[in-house]
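Action item from last meeting closed. Structure (223 res):
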């Protein structure tokens, strides 16, 4: 199954929003879409690039948070762990950081979509952890939420370097509940049942999406 070819006449790419709470298996779901040939924009990787060496957000972030810089042999970068420890415990500071990052990430998303529209790609995925929290669902045709029960999700997260119960709780306190995200989404992928079942779910979604005209492309991302 190839995300670049579909039965419908071309009206721009169908934009599928992929979201889910931390540790729900969203990275795996994104890999599944890529496996079937669907281009995926990874918002987390975009943020990492913006905060990395010579990243587009480094200067603005250092003005707001001067203690989170990393001294490198080349150009400055941001220590994401230090930054996270600051903003996840202070809603005001988190919003200040988001006001810097979100417009830059959205510009990268628009460039990504425009590139694939020129190639007449039929289906795209925007992997956005805070899709609903930022109103991003209004710029997509459909939303897929990835879900796993807490007894599966929490152990996945706590084995990550630098993660602990307090930090996980702080991160989740700034997000909608996984259950509410699933209610708001058009599709839900369960990552509890195993990768084979997740692949089957993704394959079926792509079949459906390739038959539906794009709606979000024109008013939100196109000309």
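Sequence:
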């Amino acid at each position: 199954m190839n995300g670049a070819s579909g039965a419908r006449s071309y009206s721009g790419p169908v934009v599928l929003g992929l979201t889910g709470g931390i540790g729900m298996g969203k990275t795996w779901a994104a890999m599944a879409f890529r496996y079937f040939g669907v281009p995926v924009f990874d918002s987390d990787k975009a943020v990492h690039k913006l905060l990395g060496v010579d990243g587009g957000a480094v200067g603005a972030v250092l003005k707001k948070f001067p203690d989170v810089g990393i001294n490198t042999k080349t150009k400055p970068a941001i220590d994401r762990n230090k930054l996270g420890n600051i903003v996840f415990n202070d809603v005001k500071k988190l919003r200040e950081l988001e006001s810097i990052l979100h417009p830059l990430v959205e510009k990268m998303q628009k460039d990504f979509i425009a590139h694939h529209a020129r190639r007449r790609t039929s289906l795209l995925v925007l992997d956005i952890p805070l899709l609903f929290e930022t109103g991003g669902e209004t710029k997509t045709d459909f939303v897929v939420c990835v879900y796993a029960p807490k007894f599966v999700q929490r152990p996945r997260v706590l084995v990550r370097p630098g993660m602990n119960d307090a930090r996980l709780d702080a991160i989740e306190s700034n997000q909608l509940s996984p259950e509410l995200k699933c209610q708001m989404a058009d599709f839900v992928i369960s990552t509890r049942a195993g990768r084979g079942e997740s692949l089957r779910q993704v394959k079926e979604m792509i079949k459906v999406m390739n038959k539906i005209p794009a709606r979000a492309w024109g008013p939100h991302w196109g000309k």
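Note appended to the action item: The CA atoms of residues 143 and 185 lie 5 Å apart.
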